[in-house]
Sequence to fold (406 residues):
Amino acid sequence: MSDKVAIILAAGVSSRMNTKLPKVLHEVCGRPMLAYVIDACRKAGIEKLYVIVGYGKEQVIEYFKDDKNIVWIEQNEQKGTGHAVMCCKSQLADFAGDTLVICGDMPLIRAEIVNTLIEKHQKETSAATLATAILDDPKGYGRIVRDSYGNIQGIVEDGDCTPMQKTIREVNPSYYCFKNKMLFEALDKITPDNVKKEYYLTDALHLIIEAGHKVVAVTAVAAEDAMGVNSRQQLSEAGKIMQSRIQDRFMKSGVTIVDPPNTWIDARTQIGQDTVIEPFTYIHGRVKIGSACRVGPFAYLREGTVLGDDVVLGVFTEVKNSSLADGVRARHHSYIGDAKLGKNADIGAGAITANFDGKKINLTQIGDNVFIGSGSTLIAPIDVPAGTKIKPGSAVTSENIEENKI
Fold:
């Protein structure tokens, strides 16, 4: 086993979100919140993950079934964060390395912060290390209490703070790294001496401090990264922050996004250099866009869309599960669904592929240098040969292509 593992807490029921879907499966920019946390752990070099599940566990496990390095641990009763970690005791009883503990509802987590936490923990050879944040408004968060030398003395939950402690701006956003043996020794000793009768992970931390072991807190978490998602409002806010990050990454890689606030791009999208994304474009799903394309305004690209280089999609054009080769033009009010378009195909205004016959989805194939006249309907399944020119306003089937040619 590696010298470090991660325990991800993903068992909770979110009453504030008023949802039947497991909270960690709610999407932020097209991906479940839990996926971002898993990615951050992976990028920080943590191979083995123990994910604590409870409410809706079948849905969570099904979504991530292809990840073979996840061990799923069930928390049958929701008895707090300390109890959730204790559910891993049998699996980690003999593990002598470091254990990261993180919440699964923190999609804004970044791998570099996880790396900073782990590096600080190992450099200081501490029993436990926290990554903390400084917030202008710390309400709702546990406060980090330090002595006059800056050593951490503990964490005081918001509701238990004295008036003086409430002024503390350094908070605990729940990024932890422990020496595994000490973590579980402390968890064995905690008791549910609180209003909720729950076992808190922070109580284990206090016991480690009281036993005289070294505990370090490193201020490494940006304010926006500290936000967990516990409501629909917070989910929306996390989406806005993530969308800004996604677009910033694309712009740094050479993509022009004309109006970022009025553009939405899925986290799974790929976009090539010198492509221009016009305002009010919506890109959802696994979409790949080549170089030097122009998309929008008001374009809608859906799951499975692949654009070659120098493709132009104009006003109110929608593309779904289709591949468009280099040089394709579809400028106005077109729908391209379940289709394969050859190089330099030209799709006229209002032309569509009728891909569904009421029972099944059918494929449209359009060859190189094909021209489809405005207002035409291509009724799939159909194969339009290279160089064909279709009259405007035609309803074209595989049987009547010849009579609808220009």
